[in-house]
From TrEMBL:
It is a multi-pass membrane protein. InterPro entries: MFS (IPR011701), MFS_dom (IPR020846), MFS_Efflux_Transporters (IPR050189), MFS_trans_sf (IPR036259). This is MFS transporter. It is found in: Cell membrane. The chain crosses the membrane at residues 7-29, 41-61, 73-95, 101-127, 148-167, 173-191, 217-239, 251-273, 285-304, 310-332, 344-367, 373-394. Coiled coil: none annotated. Residues 7-398 form the Major facilitator superfamily (MFS) profile domain.
Length: 436
């Protein structure tokens, strides 16, 4: 029991620190832009470049984690985030204007490369450490809660640090990553592999087979994860901007206002993870309900610009996203065999980073050319697309009756089906002995 708690603390520290290292910059982006004399679009690149390099490297990190082990990838990647954070901090401290800007960008690129092998690898590692589906789903919810708690804490902490010194949020990032690195080395003990890792050519064939068989619901989950992150980071960027420009809120007070919708996201993520268990139909319908809440709240928000309406309806929509995220994590983790789990979940994480990278720049362009109504109309539209994907593309099998242990054992690797005809599992095709 004590070891399980240690595992969860170390696992949860990774998304917590990675989220702080990224989201903590959002409340101070306008101030960083003024200090460096760059445009709003340029300063949004501090978030985007981090995410773009992670998008490109996450699939590689996923394969390496399947090939050499999860911890063997996480540790060096956390070291890379420490180095990248240090470069950004030193550049902001010692340089000025464009020289400082491009040095910070270079450090953010290294941080993104490190992030590619950190949080995305946590999701399959939870599936490896906790074979029982109820326990795995609950702990995935806990890990997602660490992630969302980081989003809650980041605007408050970022604003407080930025009020002391504009580049202080950049300076504390390497220290946060170092804490996570120490916890992972000290507390996580990965069980020894029972099977020899497969070679790259066979691995690629297996992944192609998985995508061919399960592509319909996998691609839908990839898209839903990206949409959730796009909405969160896009609206946070917008809210951070208008709180200063329109409502003249700065510093810690601004951070507290930004944290309100994220608290809702965090609580709903925790509750969603506890409720879903191993029930895949429940995962679908709770996730669908969350996405519907997101869509409706943002559709209404397009008609109101008062600060209380913006924060209140964003809080409601954030709760919807919080319900959806642990459902998406659990569906994808327990729907894939362990041998391909790292790579498939890394593709999912890549799409989440796509949403992170697109949110701030797209919103900066929309608010410059259109306005409030079109912005939230667009957000409601993408939320509606996500809800339809959950409704139409994700088709779980009927859950087993409670207490049927023999059925649970025989269906431990229960797979999801989709609307087209079923095909034999990839694991059977992979191990089938050819006729002589």
């Amino acid at each position: 029991m004590q070891q399980n708690k240690g595992n969860l603390v170390a696992l949860g520290s990774i998304p917590l620190m990675m989220t702080l290292g990224n989201s903590m910059l959002i409340p101070v982006l306008p101030e960083i832009g003024r200090k460096l004399h760059v445009s709003s679009f340029q300063i949004s690149m501090l978030i985007t470049v981090y995410a773009v390099v992670a998008i490109l490297l996450i699939p590689i990190a996923g394969y390496l984690s399947d090939r050499f082990g999860r911890k063997a990838v996480i540790v060096p990647c956390l070291i890379l985030t420490v180095i990248g954070g240090g470069i950004s901090a030193v550049g902001a401290w010692l340089l000025h204007d464009l020289a400082a800007y491009w040095t910070i960008i270079a450090g953010r690129l290294l941080q993104g490369a490190g992030a590619a092998g950190a949080f995305p690898i946590v999701i399959p590692l939870v599936g490896d450490l906790y074979e029982n589906e109820d326990e795995a789903s609950k702990n995935l919810g806990v890990v997602e809660t660490y992630n969302t708690f980081g989003k809650v804490l980041s605007p408050i902490l970022g604003a407080a640090l930025g009020a002391v010194l504009w580049f202080l949020p950049l300076a504390v990032i390497p220290g946060l990553c170092l804490i996570s690195l120490i916890l992972v080395i000290w507390l996580i003990h990965v069980p020894k592999r029972k099977n020899q890792p497969i070679m790259f050519r066979e691995f690629v064939g297996n992944v192609k087979q998985v995508l061919a068989e399960k592509g319909r619901w996998l691609y839908a989950i990839f898209a839903m994860g990206g949409i959730c992150m796009f909405v969160i980071f896009g609206v946070l960027f917008y809210l951070s901007d208008i709180l200063e420009s329109r409502y003249h809120l700065h510093g810690v007070w601004k951070g507290f206002v930004l944290a309100i919708p994220l608290i809702s996201l965090c609580l709903c993520s925790y509750l969603g993870g506890k409720v879903i268990g191993k029930h895949k139909k429940r995962m679908k319908w709770i996730g669908f309900a969350g996405l519907v809440i997101l869509t409706i709240s943002f559709a209404i928000l397009g008609f109101f610009q008062h600060i209380y309406a913006v924060v209140g309806l964003f809080t409601l929509g954030g709760g919807g996203i919080g319900l959806a995220l642990p459902c998406l994590d659990a569906l994808i983790t327990k729907g894939i065999e362990k041998e391909e789990r790292g790579t498939i979940t890394s593709l999912y994480s890549s799409m989440r980073f796509v949403g992170v990278s697109l949110g701030p720049p797209v919103v900066s362009l929309l608010i410059g050319r259109s306005g409030h109504s079109l912005l939230f109309g667009a957000m409601a539209a993408v939320g509606g697309i996500a809800a339809l994907l959950m409704l139409l593309a994700v088709k779980p099998k009927q859950d087993e009756p409670a207490g049927d242990k023999s059925s649970d054992r025989s269906n431990k690797r229960e797979k999801m089906t989709y609307m087209s005809r079923e095909k034999p599992p990839a694991s059977k095709l992979r191990h089938k002995t050819p006729a002589k």
